[in-house]
């Protein structure tokens, strides 16, 4: 490729890319703007781009609702516990899948591979959760996703990139498989563990569907269900099931509250995003390597 | 060490397969599995003759095909554009921005959509109002529904989708570009005659993956976007199964519908892979 002067094509390219970036950023900007507008001076339905009178009242209101804190508790629980368990199940089982010579290896590999192509489906899984007595339990949002074929195959291909001579040396020194896994393999797998903890954590933070399938008690709703009730359901004929009667003051215009809730729910993702981006671009490429 | 993973797959993934048998029953939760009546393919017959099979198939295929035409090529074009950027800082910043929406949940993306397009508080209508135009109701208008879905997909995933193509482009032999320059090719010709052919197999593989997923058209997204006004154009297999099975309790019928979808999906994946191999590409497995 030629270095040197900027051609006409370059200029067009830069302009279009900048416009695309702005399209990505604009919704964030708009939502931040409205959420920071003083609810007292905000007129319902008014058109504005930059906060007219800066105020955090909408945030104070949302943070004062018990519902948000309940939902935050649920989401933090499933994110923290779920991430730890997902890592444990994925790292151990992926290691088993690297052991070509082991009896049962073929069985385990096909067990995972089949699920990649065929699933029992939504309703049988729902009935299982019901039979296990997990309805309305936060465990119903964690247990069905402890690991998945994609994660297992990516981690397996990472393990395979670790030189086999390391394992052999440990073996000769008298270490057993479990010790080799703990002392040799895991310490070398830190980068992939970092990538997958972030990956699992984001997935769990964004839990929505299993929330509406399994959790009927609004007190236990994860954040995404809370947010969808607040913004999406309240707009359709179904109506919102969030009860604002618990507050003894007049709520500020619903728009600023909606925007503030939206910002609060996506804030953690925006905060960890710089770390995510670095690890993930690598992770996605690992996943594309055939193992 | 195999025990946790083995138990997980056994209980969470294989045990529910038992439930598939209910598709051939007239399952009654009060009678239980053993007492419920076996009805053979009755549920499937109902689905295809009296049920909503055709509208579901039409909606699903329409959404898939629109995604294939408008959403699938978008990351390829964007990757080619990014690849032409020589200012590293600009490239890095652009990438950071366009990857971001990928990490947001569908609830957030659909919420954005509502705050932008809803009739009463949407940004667009407020802007139209401000400029003195008539307001339009977009979210409850069937003819805008597919456009919104595809638009959301592009906004959320186009940046993330470039990663795999950028990696493929980075693997192209630089000598090919030098040779093309010697032959007098300009930049567009180099993209057309060198870059695109070089990443063809990546494109084909991803295309097959998409074809195998034809029947999976974004359950979470569509469920959030559905409202009674767009039900006719927006109902797809997954939302129908959810509605029939979990909300209405027609377990046997909904499992039959789900089973049909899984089997059809499996055939599509296997068939797509076969086609790829025939076309001389590597295939997925």
TrEMBL record, chain A:
GO cellular component: plasma membrane
ABC transmembrane type-1 domain location: 72-276
GO terms, biological process: transmembrane transport
Cell compartments where the protein resides: Cell membrane
CDD domains hit by this protein: TM_PBP2
Keyword line: Cell membrane, Membrane, Transmembrane, Transmembrane helix, Transport
Major subcellular site: membrane
Transmembrane residue ranges: 12-32, 76-96, 108-129, 135-155, 192-215, 257-276
Topology class, membrane: Multi-pass membrane protein
Family statement: Belongs to the binding-protein-dependent transport system permease family.
PANTHER family: ABC TRANSPORTER PERMEASE PROTEIN MG189-RELATED-RELATED (PTHR43744), POLYGALACTURONAN_RHAMNOGALACTURONAN TRANSPORT SYSTEM PERMEASE PROTEIN YTCP (PTHR43744:SF9)
Name of the protein in question: ABC transmembrane type-1 domain-containing protein
Organism whose genome encodes this protein: Paenibacillus agaridevorans
Organism classification: Bacteria, Bacillati, Bacillota, Bacilli, Bacillales
UniProtKB/TrEMBL annotation, chain B:
Spans through the membrane: 7-24, 61-82, 103-124, 144-170, 191-209, 251-276
Location within or outside the cell: Cell membrane; Membrane
Organism of origin: Paenibacillus agaridevorans
Topology class, membrane: Multi-pass membrane protein
Residues in ABC transmembrane type-1 domain copies: 57-272
Assigned protein family: Belongs to the binding-protein-dependent transport system permease family.
The keyword Kinase is assigned to this record: no
GO biological process, one term: transmembrane transport
UniProt xrefs under InterPro entries: MetI-like, MetI-like_sf
Gene3D superfamilies: MetI-like (1.10.3720.10)
GO CC aspect terms: plasma membrane
Annotated protein name in UniProt: Protein lplB
Keywords of the record: Membrane, Transmembrane, Transmembrane helix, Transport
